[in-house]
TrEMBL record:
This is Oligopeptidase B. InterPro entries: AB_hydrolase_fold (IPR029058), Pept_S9A_N (IPR023302), Peptidase_S9_cat (IPR001375), Peptidase_S9A (IPR002470), Serine_Peptidase_S9A (IPR051543). SUPFAM superfamilies: alpha/beta-Hydrolases (SSF53474), Peptidase/esterase 'gauge' domain (SSF50993). GO terms for biological process: proteolysis. Keywords: Hydrolase, Protease, Serine protease. Residues 1-23 are annotated as: Disordered. Belongs to the peptidase S9A family. Residues 12-421 form the Peptidase S9A N-terminal domain. Residues 481-697 form the Peptidase S9 prolyl oligopeptidase catalytic domain.
Length: 699
């Protein structure tokens, strides 16, 4: 197709070429833009002011360029922002969840960017603000709260914050009676703490200089942080680690995993000086999760070939694998996602025939029932409970047309109580919209699900623009849930579609396996097939489709840009993982060793090197007529480092044919998740949507 001249003819920033060669397995690559990676990147993540001035000048030039190209959309962006903000209940509040004498929840004040956390007596009484995020964020260009955990005696609060976007969190302890901060401040943590049974101290993970949670410590309240006891150290850089506890306060659980292997270690919450005991030693490919069940643990595992997982039980006092007994058998095609244990019940969230469902299991009889829902495509979430000894659990439900509904559900009587329906202050009539679930034929014959929403008045004759969203990695499933933001596109005649491509678990674990390592290209061809199917079914046309994805989904955007640029009118790549081969060859980066099971290890394996090199977006940029591309990044992002999209933008401009521009927008005060406030994040979404509207001819 002939691409229209949408943007002003403005020269992009000139990026100096400083070729660097790298030879692995006898194969040499040249990288002209490797210099954009700051040698002191670890320091920059913590303190952006330390960035090399030459690199900073280049990034600021990129921001000036994209701002100039998008200047004509300023009014549109303001209108989009106002619309999206108008759909948010500014003084919204969660439904408090009971925990003994108190019920805990969160809320926003009108105009507030950050959440406030509160509690009130369970039997009724005045609300007490225990943490005000807006107050804590004062004076910070970036501020994001991490984990919040009250002690079981309700006397103190552990809370965490990140004020750089680097995801190095500081932990603090607050006395809830006085509101005063205690002297117990711990830095460089993973973002949460777990109280011991006596509430005399807490467990936490500390990040090493490469941003890996390599150590679990115990901090006794009132003691110096330097005296914190090392509980466990993980020496394999390929594994992530976290620490949590059970609601009954019986156990502290250390979870260690990569993308295909897991391991648990346990210690009694009443004895923080105990050495953690191994449950089942890590075995490549063996995954298991533990959930409390009183004198047993429920074990969600893929052991013994249970690819879509099964549930077993094991004695809490002696949980090693030899004692695991099957409770819920493996059923191919039914993927069990998570388990929550209660005194008398066990609840599981599973996905069958592409849709989620909640199953309640009565422990005394083994009887089960499924909670039913009417729509053909929807999203479910388990909120669980603070309490273990209860018959009531909480879940959420939504669809692409139905605002989120929160329910309390009595597992014994099966009574369902609607607690809250998401309020859309500016108004929302579900009857104005149509949601559909399509199946797109992939090149190998697989059928790829597509969830979509459009306005009832949108003509389905191929003239509608479309935003097609995809992710397709790590087994992540993108839910068909209610999204107030996308309505700003839908109300302007867009079809908003989600491609449930391989690499996710939308159709079971095999759907994930068939979109990773040597099968990774299925992810990309599935997405392109979804675009073709939407055109074939007259929902849109190729010159009206804008593709969008972030992080690993941004890598998807880079790959489909190389493979089928003619299929898209524009591409939005947020924090895009586009320099896959270089990153997987750099074992000093935070996520590289843990990512090898997902992508392959090109350091150790020539085959893995060649597999990644064949699709890595940066390595496959060619003289193609690419559509307009918007890449978005954050300077302090430790997950997808800023230089990946910076290099990609420079190489695209250097090698592409055609006149479509490449825009690179970098937030100099944020990391992987973008802006931290709820409204400042809307400004970023409004920018992306304005780009989509512009390239689709609807601006």
């Amino acid at each position: 197709m002939t691409r229209p001249a949408i943007f002003a003819d403005i020269a992009p920033p000139s990026t100096e070429r400083r070729p660097v060669s790298d030879t692995r397995h006898g194969i040499t690559r040249i990288d002209e833009y490797a210099w954009l990676r700051a040698d002191n990147w670890q320091e920059v993540v913590r303190d952006p002011s330390l960035l090399d001035p030459v690199i900073r000048t280049h990034l600021e030039a990129e921001n000036s360029y994209q701002a100039e190209l998008m200047a004509g959309t300023a009014d549109l962006r303001k209108k989009l922002f106002d619309e999206m903000k108008g759909r948010i209940k500014e003084d919204d509040s969660s439904v408090p969840m009971k925990d003994g004498p108190f019920a805990y929840g969160s809320s926003y004040k009108k105009g507030g960017e950050q959440p406030r956390y509160f509690r009130l007596p369970s039997e009724g009484g005045a609300e007490e603000i225990i943490l005000d995020g807006d107050k804590e964020a004062e004076g910070h260009a970036y501020f994001r709260l991490g984990g919040i955990d009250h002690s079981s005696d309700h006397a103190r609060l552990i809370w965490a914050f990140d004020d750089k976007g680097s995801e190095f969190y500081t932990l603090r302890v607050r006395d809830l009676a006085s509101g005063a901060e205690l002297a117990d401040i711990v830095g460089d943590t993973g973002g949460s703490g777990e109280w011991d049974a006596a509430n005399a101290g807490f467990f936490y993970t500390r990040l090493d200089p490469n941003h890996r949670p390599s150590k679990v410590f115990y901090h006794a309240l009132g003691s110096d942080v330097s005296a914190d006891r090392l509980i466990y150290e993980e020496t394999d850089p390929g594994f992530f680690m976290s620490v949590g506890g059970t609601r009954s306060n019986d156990w502290i659980m250390i979870s260690i995993s990569d993308h295909e292997t897991s391991e648990y270690r346990l210690l009694p919450a009443s004895n923080p000086l105990a050495s953690p005991a191994l449950v089942a030693a890590r075995e490549t490919g063996l995954q298991y999760d533990l959930e409390e069940g009183g004198d047993i643990f429920f074990v969600l595992t893929n052991a013994d070939g249970a690819k879509d997982f099964k549930i077993m039980t094991t004695p809490a006092a002696n949980p090693e694998r030899a004692n695991w007994k099957e409770l819920v058998a493996h059923e191919p095609g039914r993927l069990i996602l998570s388990v929550i244990g209660f005194r008398d019940f066990m609840v599981r969230l599973e996905r069958k025939e592409g849709l989620p469902r909640i199953v309640v299991h009565e422990r005394s009889t083994g009887a089960e029932h499924v909670i039913s829902f009417p729509e053909e495509a929807f999203s479910l979430g388990l909120s669980g409970s603070y309490e273990y000894d209860t018959e009531t659990m909480r879940f959420s439900y939504s669809s692409m047309t139905t605002p989120t509904q929160l329910f309390d559900y009595n597992m014994r009587t099966r009574d369902r109580v609607l607690l809250k329906t998401q309020e859309v202050p500016s108004g929302h009539n579900a009857e104005d919209y149509v949601t559909r679930r399509l199946m797109a034929p992939a090149p190998d014959g697989e059928l790829v699900p597509i969830s979509l929403i459009h306005h009832r008045d949108t003509p389905l004759d191929g003239t509608a623009p479309c935003l097609l969203y995809g992710y397709g990695s790590y087994g992540m499933t993108i839910p068909a849930s209610f999204n107030t933001n996308c309505l700003s596109l839908v109300d302007r005649g867009f079809v908003y579609a989600i491609a449930h491509i391989r690499g996710g678990k939308d159709k079971g674990y095999a759907w994930y396996d068939d979109g990773k390592r040597t099968a990774k290209t299925n992810t990309f061809t599935d997405f392109i097939a979804c675009a073709h199917h939407l055109v074939a079914e007259r929902y849109t046309a190729h010159d009206r489709i804008v593709a969008q994805g972030g992080s690993a989904g941004g890598m998807l955007m880079g790959a489909i840009a190389n493979m089928a640029p003619e299929a898209f009118a524009g591409i939005i790549a947020e924090v895009p993982f586009v320099d896959v081969l270089t990153t997987m060859l750099d074992d000093a980066l935070p996520l590289t060793p843990p990512e090898w099971p997902e992508w392959g290890n090109p350091i150790a394996s020539e085959d893995d090197y060649k597999t990644i090199a064949a699709y890595s977006p940066y390595d496959n940029v060619a003289a193609l007529d690419y559509p307009p591309i918007l890449a978005v990044a954050g300077l302090t992002d430790p997950r997808v480092t800023y230089w990946e999209p910076a290099k990609w933008a420079a190489r695209l401009r250097d090698r592409k044919s055609g006149s479509s521009p490449v825009l690179f927008k970098i937030n100099m005060d944020s990391g992987h998740a973008g802006a931290s406030g709820r409204f400042s994040r809307l400004e970023e979404i409004a920018f992306n949507y304005a780009f989509a509207l512009k390239v689709a001819g609807r601006a």
